[in-house]
Amino acid sequence: MNNIPTMTKNLLIVNFLAFVATWVLELRGIDLTSMLGLHFFMAKDFHLFQFITYMFLHGGFTHIFFNMFALWMFGAVIERVWGPKKFLFYYISCGVGAGIVQEIAQYVNYLSVGLAAYDHVNLGGTLMLTDDYLNLWTTIGASGAVYAILLAFGMTFPNERLFIIPFPFPIKAKWLVVGYIAIELFSALSGPGDGVAHTAHLGGMLFGFIMIRYWRKHPGNGGSFGRSRGQEFFDNMKRKYDERKRYASDHQRRRWADEPDDPEPPKKPKRANQEEIDAILDKIRKSGYDSLTKEEKKKLFEQSQEN
After folding, report:
1. What is the pLDDT of residues 25-70, one digit of tens each?
2. Residue 205 burial by CB count (10 A; 0-12/13-18/19+): exposed, middle or buried?
3. Which residue of 15, 58, 255, 261 sits 20 to 30 Å from the alpha carbon of 4, by its own alpha carbon?
4. Contacts with 229 (C-beta within 8 Å, 6 or more apart), sequence order
5. How many of the other CB atoms lie within 10 Å of CB of 302?
C-alpha cells in the first residue's frame, strides 16, 4: 500500500469501508443502497447528493473487487502522471457524468414504456404502485469512474501492451479500450435485464474523453491542478537537456567555422550517451519518474550537473 499514490489509496480505502458499512448496517436493518444509491430522478427517494454517494457503494464482493482492482492497476499510473488533484477531479466528474447518462437512459426507457399512463405495474402477477416501482431504479458502483480511468490510460499510453485473461498474448491499451466500448455498447443496445448499468459505463468514458480532449487543446487549464514531483523533475530535466544540446551544437558549429583547414575535424559528441539519456526520458514519459532504477536516476542527475 505504501507504493500506491495518495489519492488512489484513499479511494480504495473509502470504497472498501463503504462496502463493509453496507454489509454491517444491512444486518441491523439499515439499507445504505436505498439511502445513498442513485435513484431515478422522478422517484420519490431521489436526491442530488446521490450523484456522488452512489459511486462508493457496491452490490457484492465481485463487483467491488474488479472495480478496485482496475482502479489500483490503472489509477495509480494516471495519478502519477496527472497529480492527485487533477486525478481526483477527473474521477469524481466522470462518476457524476456516468450517473447523468444513466438517468437519461432511464428516462428514455420510462417514456418508451409509457409508465406515465399507469398507476400500477404488473410484476409477475403482483401489482406494484408505479411510484414504488420507479424507486427500484437504483444505480450503485464506481464502474463509470473506473471505465473513465481505463480510457485515460488508453489515451495516455495507447501502445502499452497488457496481458488480459484469457488471452495468451499482449494487447495494446488502445485496442483494449476499443474492445470495452464495443462490448458495453452492444450490451446497452441489447436492452436491460442483466442488472448492469452499461450506459453508466459508457457515460463515464464519454465524459472522460471530452475532458481529456479539452485539456489537450487547453493545456494551461489541465495544468492548473498541479503535477507530481516526478513529472516536474522530468519537465525541468528535459528543458535543461535540450538547452545543453542546443548550446553544444552551436559551439561545435562555431569551432568548425573557425578551423576550416583542420585535417582532423572535431569529434562528434558521443551518441551512446545521448541515446541512453533519450531512452531514460522516453521511459519517464511512458511510465513516470518513479519507474526509473537508481542507476537511471543517478545518470539523469549527473547529466543535469554537467556544464
Report:
1. 999 999 999 999 999 999 999 999 999 999 999 989 999 999 999 9
2. buried
3. 58
4. 289
5. 9
Has this prediction a pTM greater than 0.85? no
Distances (CA, A) of 148 to 39, 83, 254, 292: 22, 16, 52, 27
Instruction: Name 100's Cβ contacts closer than 8 Å, sequence gap at least 6.
Output: 51, 203
Pairwise CA distance, residues 225 & 84, whole Å: 8
Determine contact, residues 219/282, Cβ cutoff 8 Å: no
Contact 224, 200 (CB under 8 A): no
Per DSSP bridges, beta strands 171-172 and 138-139 are unpaired
* Sheet strands (E) in 109-247: 120-123, 126-129, 138-139, 161-162, 171-172
Burial class (CB in 10 A: 0-12, 13-18, 19+), 140: buried
Burial status of residue 156 (CB atoms within 10 A of its CB: 0-12, 13-18, 19 or more): middle
What are the beta bridge partners of residue 126? 123
Q: Over the stretch 85-131, which tens digit does the pLDDT of each residue have? A: 999 999 999 999 999 999 999 999 889 888 888 888 887 778 889 88
**Strands 120-123, 126-129: parallel, antiparallel or unpaired by DSSP?**
antiparallel
Answer whether 241's CB lies under 8 Å from 138's CB. no
As given in the structure block, the three cell numbers for residue 151 are 480510457
Contact 149, 78 (CB under 8 A): yes
- β-strand partners of 127: 122
Residue 220 has a CB neighbour count (10 Å cut-off) of 7
Q: Can you tell me whether residue 113 is helix, strand or coil?
A: helix
